[in-house]
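Practice problem 4.
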């Protein structure tokens, strides 16, 4: 497989069903999902397998699903069976509930950070929120898999809880946001 093709030199790129401008909302959406995936790899790389074996497994599964989400979002004008489905979103909810049990309850908003692992997961959360905003716009303007929007919404919650779990497992307290009254 050749790495460069020169077909994008004029500002167009291929999607499933044709070619679009590289700054098309569809390309922005799946491109941002790809950024999330890269940062998930960064988070995994920072993890100690003895401490985070379960999180590494979950995040690796999420990386595969993010490729599926990108593929679903890359479909323009051609309908095929989508890969991201409700079962994936429900599984994220189970993981959120599972990992949240390890964390102390929240009474305030927290600042992103703590351990290097938690910091990387907070970056994943922020990028996922951006991807979600782009997918919301894409769903409004064009035909696409609406389940990707729901999945990304839940995924950002998963990253939040996973970041807190990483801090707890390393005995690092979350830093509460102090300039506001209790948030919850």
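Answer key:
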């Amino acid at each position: 497989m050749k790495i460069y093709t020169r077909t994008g030199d004029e500002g167009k790129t291929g999607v499933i069903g044709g070619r679009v401008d590289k700054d098309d909302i569809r390309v922005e959406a799946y491109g941002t999902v790809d950024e999330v995936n890269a940062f998930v790899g960064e988070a995994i790389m920072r993890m100690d397998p003895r401490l985070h074996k379960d999180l590494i497994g979950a995040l690796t599964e999420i990386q595969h699903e993010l490729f599926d989400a990108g593929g679903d979002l890359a479909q323009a004008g051609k309908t095929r069976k989508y890969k991201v489905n409700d079962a994936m979103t429900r599984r994220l909810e189970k993981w959120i509930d599972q990992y949240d049990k390890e964390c102390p309850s929240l009474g305030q908003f927290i600042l992103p950070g703590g351990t290097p692992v938690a910091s990387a997961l907070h970056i994943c959360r922020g990028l996922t929120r951006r991807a979600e905003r782009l997918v919301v716009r894409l769903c409004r303007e064009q035909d696409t898999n609406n389940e990707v929007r729901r999945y990304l919404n839940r995924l950002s919650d998963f990253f939040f809880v996973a970041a807190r779990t990483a801090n707890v497992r390393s005995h690092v307290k979350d830093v509460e946001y102090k300039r506001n009254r209790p948030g919850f």
